[in-house]
Fold this protein.
Amino acid sequence: MESLWPWLAIAGVGALHGLNPATGWLLAAAWGLQSHDRSLALRALGPIAVGHAASVALVAAAVIFGLAMDRLLLQALAGALFVVVAVLHLWRRTPKAARAPAGHAGLALWSFMMATAHGAGLMLVPALIPLCMSDTPAREISTSGSLLLALAAMGVHTAAMLAVSGVVATGVCRGAGWFQSLRQKSPTAPR
């Protein structure tokens, strides 16, 4: 049971990230609401997963290879990237196209920036250290057993985040659809 606690912590932190609207469920729900198709909200989780996993992998790799990371530097880089993307977005857009949702690349970039700014990978470090430093048989799978465990931890974390994000995004889409149907049935609703 002792070796299960780090995995539960990794999944718990992932679920907590899934509840945060800045990590992507809000944008996924917006995709579903704008298209009137809840399945589009679930398809938006793919780019969110790519961006989130890239951020977590960056930190996990630094921990495994013993690299020192400065959180303020990472946040400053993520903020600068956000400003550059926002300026380019505003500079290239026309008013008619401003209503178009972000593309898959934009959603992945948003997810990467938010996960990096929120310290998604840094939150996993306390759970990764006991896993990577233990003498369990799983660590000895290959010469890079720590890397394999870190990838597994990243997968568990991202899967938990996506599960919660998907439930929340589709719940928002379903709730908005239910509210809209109530408004249409009400005789006093403005048309």
Remarks:
- The chain has one domain: 2-185.
- Residues 138-143 have pLDDT under 50 and may be disordered.
- The CA atoms of residues 181 and 187 lie 12 Å apart.
